[in-house]
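Homework help thread (please don't just give me the answer)

Our assignment gives two proteins as sequence + structure token strings and asks us to describe the second one. The first is just a warm-up. Here they are:
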Amino acid sequence: MYHYELAGLPSIYLKNGYSIDSSPYGETVAIDDLEGLHGMIAISIIEGEKKLSQAEFKFLRSFLDMSQSVLADFLGVSDQMINRYETGKTAVTGSVDHMIRVLVQEKARGAGKVFDLIEKINELDRGIEQAEHDFCFSNDNQRWARTLNCVHG
């Protein structure tokens, strides 16, 4: 059994799904489907009934691929408050606990509309510039939809 500590959580053990090899620099560990493992860890955390610990909160933020700043903006708290949650200086409040569980569930079980919005916010936070473009729409006689390849004519 392998004690998996790279997630920052003290009590994660793997029965299989990993290999340990030797290199000139020491032991190396390869984890099969690391993203899948992190998804299962995240689901296990949010399905628990206890309040999130500082390490769990930090892991979940990382799993969401959100900076402290983006998560703070989304939750309506300061960057410093996110830092205080992650360092254990302040206990995670009930509303923040609930909201991060919703976000994780949405990401882990298939990104929905809320997570799509968060991904767009993350892109902006990472400084990805979006080119100015026109918005084009079409109506299929039932509803309007945004279309790609907007060509003026």
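The one we have to describe:
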Amino acid sequence: MDNVLDPAHPSHSDYLISTNGWRAEQIFDSDAPLDDMTIQRLINELESHALERCGFITTSPEEIVVVQNSHDNPRMNFFMETDDFTASLEYIYESTQREVLGIWHTHPNGYGWPSPRDIAGWPNLALGWRYFLVFRGNVTEWRLVRDDSNTL
């Protein structure tokens, strides 16, 4: 992603990020919760690093695949460079013969919800990937929904 006008790009410095009518909604009762071991590994990623971490979760058996966070401000944001992103997907699909269950990242700042930058950089919904956020010893799942509210 070379376009600095893209709000998910690390060089984008506008803090008033449009979510284009989308908002994140937490999923409380998933039909397919993560394995306890996967949850613990994600929490370990959070607790052992001061900067945001990110990556993928594979299908069964679930595996955490860490992707290098290349953001200019990794304390508050994450960004996967195309080469790292592609190498991780090649590993998942070709080496392990699995699929991507979801994408994850940590919020070491403790915020328990996706930021507007997270929403702007959300993976294409057509991929069907689940979205997980790790914070304060918790792993939560989120989905994008149209924000039809007329409130400010």
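TA reply:
I won't write it for you, but here's a hint about the kind of observation we're looking for: Strands lie at 22-27, 54-58, 64-67, 100-106, 130-135, 138-146.
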